[in-house]
Write a structure and sequence with these properties.
heterotrimer, A alpha/beta, B mainly alpha, C mainly beta, A: 5 helices, 7 strands, globular, C: Porin, 4 helices
Chain lengths: 162, 85, 426
């Protein structure tokens, strides 16, 4: 009986993640307040390749990744690529303090109520979502370890050409 | 090991082994969704909440108490988890 | 004064990274009853898990001065720790620790000479991270003139349920070699011996094995739970070559000293619960309880409360309260009624019944070292603990001539523990 239960759990474990795979689906729309002071919505970037990076100032790998994201943004921005840094902290003071020390030029949006994090089912910190020019989610990358930025570059190069 | 201490080891160990096997099975499988989302772990990621904060001091005090008391064990600490990576 | 257990084996519990030490049973030869099919599914689940990975500990270096002073004993010395990552998956730790002991304790004054001694301990450890699993191994070597101990430990730690849970299994094994110091030159009683050598007729061994299982669980966004269970078995010479028991005898002081006799096995179980709670004004409250019981009938309950409060941007203050109560070992007695009263006899106060209260206070100051940019965080710490032990059945036998054997006042001990350390993260 116990062995059968374990077998059932094992089968579910393979099936469930497959059901939850969001790639290929249209990216959920949202509007958030930004550091610039204006509201920013995903819809205004339709036709561009959009990368959403969910980050927080208290998360080590997120901080490690930011300068590399800045390089990617600078390089591909003119080719129709947009990077939106979605900060998930309810209180943005710590994030703003950190950005003063480590400035980035891409837009920073504040998801203070975690509604966009929930929309995109953020499962790890950081999380990176790459959306193609038609508005479909094409890449979902969880976590960051040194070297992951090469995977982002490969995806962006391919999607920018579409 | 003496026969008597082997018998004392086994029931608790077997229970622990079964628990661990089940836990490891569910580990890769995650049918349970995390109820504290990674983006909600700001407080848990605070260094003050770390289980191994000032570990050089904690190790020393554990050693000091063990030397003077009859008890030992079950004082270990493993990292909490900020949901990063 | 020598503890009946290896000090190095004690340190292996926390290892060199504060990791728990437990493990899969290798001593019993029994296996869980899962079919080969299920076991394959099990293996697949672990491999096919999500791509998120765990985290290795940060690179750091700590230098500490520690001191214990109380009951006629002072023990002080350095403790140095270095931890460094190599690549993305491997982290190494090295630690050096020393106890410089100067003892004229109540036990020593009763039946031996005061002594100076140095215990040195070196440990090395490695952590290997693969996905969500961390594998750790380590080795500790402790040596002093009359006690050598080697310990090895292994542990596996797994993050699961979206990193809400961490399960750790560990195993440790220790080998002790016990000698006995004797004085090779005549000297007045109560003074230090000028020439100490090992007694060539005394050479004993002890073997220790420990298994532990632990779970760290995130309960809410503000609460962390840590559960630990540990079982240890000791075998061999578990006594203290310098301590003696006493029994009632007429004349003189009213008692006679005799060698202690310990059992040569012990199995102990310990289980603890720790809760950490994040308070809204940025402070942490922690509460811990540990239950201990062994086959020598020692029962120990430990209660600990801690409060951590950051202040003024760079300071962090810690206060803690610890209460420990112990009931005595079955073969313990302060004064046996006659010679050879029972098979096993001990008068070690570590096995007596007592209550212990410890109050601690620590301050940490975080500072910058602008000239060394590769050090991204550094702090200086000072901590003081005051420990009070009230023995319920251990008497101050040095006062037998005044009060009569068995009527001396119960012993009480006050000790001050001091730590000062600097930590840098790079």
């Amino acid at each position: 009986m116990r062995n059968r239960l374990l077998a059932l759990l094992a089968v579910l474990s393979v099936a469930l993640p497959a059901l939850a795979d969001p790639t290929g689906q249209p990216a959920p729309q949202f509007t958030l307040g930004a550091r610039s002071g204006h509201d920013v919505s995903l819809a205004q970037y339709k036709g561009n390749v959009v990368m959403l990076n969910f980050w927080a100032s208290w998360c080590g790998p997120c901080r490690q990744e930011m300068p590399l994201l800045e390089n990617i943004y600078q390089k591909y921005n003119k080719l129709g690529f947009v990077l939106l840094g979605v900060n998930v902290e309810p209180d943005s003071n710590a994030a703003n303090d950190w950005l003063k020390a480590t400035p980035v030029s891409f837009p920073i949006l504040y998801d203070k109520e975690s509604k966009v994090s929930r929309l995109y089912d953020v499962e790890g910190m950081p999380s990176t979502v790459i959306i193609d020019r038609t508005g479909r989610v094409r890449v979902l990358h969880r976590g960051y370890k040194p070297g992951d930025e090469n995977e982002y570059l490969d995806s962006i190069r391919a999607l920018v050409r579409e | 090991m003496s026969h008597r201490s082997e018998r004392e080891c086994t029931p608790a160990l077997r229970a622990a082994l079964r628990l661990a096997a089940l836990a490891l099975l569910l580990a890769g499988c995650s049918p349970v969704q995390p109820w504290v989302k990674p983006y909600e772990r700001e407080h848990l990621a605070d260094p003050l909440m770390s289980l191994s904060r000032n570990s050089i001091s904690a190790t020393y005090l554990d050693h000091m108490f063990e030397t003077r008391e009859g008890s030992h064990g079950a004082t270990g600490a493993v990292g909490g988890g900020c949901g990063c990576n | 004064m020598r503890p009946a257990r290896s000090a190095a084996a004690a340190d292996a519990i926390d290892g060199v990274r504060g990791a728990r030490v437990t493990g899969v049973a290798s001593g019993t030869g029994r296996r869980p009853a899962l079919s080969p099919f299920t076991r394959t599914l099990l293996a697949l689940c672990i491999i096919a898990g999500p791509a998120l990975s765990g985290v290795l500990p940060e690179d750091e270096a700590d230098v500490m001065y520690h001191s214990y002073s109380g009951g006629g004993i002072t023990v002080e010395g350095p403790s140095v720790l270095i931890r460094k990552k190599v690549g993305d998956s491997l982290s190494f730790t090295g630690q050096y620790y020393e106890d410089m002991i100067s003892s004229a304790s109540i036990d020593v004054r009763l039946s031996a000479s005061p002594y100076h001694e140095i215990r040195k301990q070196e440990s090395i450890g490695a952590d290997y991270l693969h996905g969500k699993t961390t594998y750790s191994v380590g080795y500790i070597h402790s040596r002093e003139p009359d006690y050598n101990a080697d310990t090895t430990y292994y542990s596996v730690s797994q993050d699961m349920f979206g990193d809400l849970t961490t399960v750790t299994l560990g195993y440790k094994r220790a080998w002790d070699r016990i000698y006995r110091d004797i004085c090779n030159a005549p000297h007045p009683t109560g003074s230090f011996c000028p020439d100490i050598i090992n007694d060539p007729t005394f050479h004993q061994q002890a073997d220790h094995r420990g298994y532990s299982f632990g779970v760290s669980q995130i309960l809410t966004r503000n609460t962390l739970l840590d559960l630990n269970y540990e079982i240890n078995t000791d075998q061999g010479y578990l006594a203290n070559p310098y301590r003696e028991i006493r029994y009632l005898s007429p004349g003189g002081l009213g008692f006679t000293l005799a060698p202690q006799v310990y059992p040569n096995t012990r199995t102990s179980n310990a289980a603890s619960v720790l809760l950490k709670y994040y308070l809204p004004w940025r402070a942490v409250l922690s509460a811990q309880y540990r239950y201990y019981h062994d086959t020598w009938a020692v029962l120990g309950d430990t209660f600990q409360l801690g409060y951590t409060l950051p202040a003024w941007h760079r300071w962090v203050f810690d206060t803690s309260l610890r209460y420990y109560t112990q009931s005595h070992a079955s073969f313990y007695s302060d004064l046996f009624p006659r010679a050879d009263y029972q098979n096993y006899e001990a008068r070690d106060r570590e096995l007596a019944a007592f209550d212990s209260y410890t109050v601690g206070f620590g301050a940490e100051y975080q500072f910058d070292i602008p000239k060394v940019p590769w050090i991204h965080k550094s702090s200086a710490n000072v901590r003081v603990d005051r420990m009070f032990i009230d023995y319920s059945d251990y008497r101050n036998a040095l006062l037998a001539d005044i009060y009569g054997a068995g009527n001396e006042p119960l012993y009480h001990l006050d000790a001050t523990i001091f730590e000062a350390f600097i930590s840098v993260w790079f």
